[in-house]
Amino acid sequence: MDKPCGMAVLCAGAAAAAMMVISPAWAHEPGRMTGGGSFFCPYYGGTQKVTHGFELHCGTGGAFEGADPAEPNNLEINFSGGDNFHLTTLRKGLCSNDPAIDQTPPNSSLFDTFVGEGTGTFNGQPAAINFTFVDAGEPGTLDTARVLITVGASTVLDCDDAAAPLTFGNHQAHKLTGNK
Fold first, then answer.
1. Is the pLDDT of residue 60 over 90?
2. Distances (CA, A) of 53 to 1, 39, 60, 145, 154
3. Of the residues 54, 61, 80, 152, which has the maximum number of CB atoms within 10 A of its CB?
4. Which pLDDT score, from 0 to 100, does residue 89 have?
């Protein structure tokens, strides 16, 4: 049985320490990412060309846990000579800064990585998507994409095992405040 905390200062200190350990896992910077281009999906032997375009917003509430990101959120992915995915609802969005990514020249967005999930349509059928887009600075040659699209229990595009570098295009992270 847990003992009640006898000293409020010690309890508050322990709670603050626990928050410091837990918080960074879900820390985020509100903002948006725009861009697009093309990449080759590693899962298909690097031969499946995937094109994409988007404007996506980070959540401003509980980060990745059920936050309602600002609007608009648009994402289109095309591949395989006619297959397409259109995002209808961005359910979760997390923007974070990876210290291993050098955004040279630096931008003022405070983040470089957008991880999201949502629902939409794949060739007109209900579908789900998980994705990660990285802005690794200008001119976009080091930017990467990871995408997984499913229809029910079937995977229709699996570019999620390794980050694929853009062969054309650019991802651009933006601060939400003052940089719309």
1. no
2. 55, 12, 23, 11, 24
3. 54
4. 93
